[in-house]
Amino acid sequence: MISILLAEWSSALENANRLSTDFMSGSLAPLDAAFGRGNKELARQALKAYTDYTLNRDASVDSLWRSQRDRLDLSGSARSMRTMQGIHADLLARSREAATKYVAVSTEAFATHLESMSTARDANDIGLSSVEFLMALQAALRTMTTDIAGTASGVAPAWTQWLQRSVEEHEPSRSKTESNPHDEVRS
What's the CA gap between 114 and 10, in Å, rounded? Predict the structure, then answer.
């Protein structure tokens, strides 16, 4: 896809150079009448030198880009980023699940507390209901904290494994003849 983009970019630059040459050639017609044939030829040579310079510059930039593109292994980096996105999605799902459980348990604890308060006979019943509610809330919070801590403890090993895999897949010393099951077939 990038090679197609580069080819189209190169074609666009050539067309722009051709259009500027045509424009300048048309603009030189009044010079011919005013200053004679010599100045027109000088302007044409300057325009040709400019065109040659821009074509050489574009060729150099294209060559430099291709060498850097091959060295950077952008498709390998894209695969690596997709793997990292999968790790992040898993971590977010686990954290969201822990938070959802907490909300469900704390909501149920609060609803139970309100029901107990509606049937409370005196301050002792209110105090007992409040203690039960706070204990249930504490247990829900402890469970959520434990779940999130468990998920968080897996972040560093997951990132380390991802980094090791990414580096091993894209080592420059790896020969081109080695096959990697993660490499995609390129057409």
Answer: 73
pLDDT at residue number 176? 45
Dig out the tokens for 24 from the structure. Answer: 């300048």
Spatial CA neighbour of 131 closest among 147, 116, 153:
116
Enumerate residues 6+ apart whose C-beta is below 8 A from 120.
Answer: 126, 129
Q: What is the dihedral of CA 5, 8, 14, 17, to 10 degrees?
A: -80
Q: Is the pTM of this model over 0.85?
A: no
Q: State the helix-helix crossing angle for 37-72 and 74-118, rounded to 10 degrees.
A: 60
| Single-letter residue type at 140 | A
Half-sphere exposure of residue 96, counting CA atoms within 13 Å on the CB side? 6
Q: Is residue 167 exposed (0-12), middle (13-18) or buried (19+ Cβ within 10 Å)? A: exposed
- All residue ranges of the chain with pLDDT < 50 are 173-187
d(CA 169, CA 182): 8
Q: Angle between the 155-169 and 74-118 helix axes, to the nearest 10 degrees?
A: 170
Using the 8-state DSSP alphabet, how is residue 176 labeled?
T
The predicted-structure confidence for 28-80, as pLDDT tens digits, reads as follows 666 566 566 667 777 788 888 888 899 999 999 998 888 888 888 888 888 88
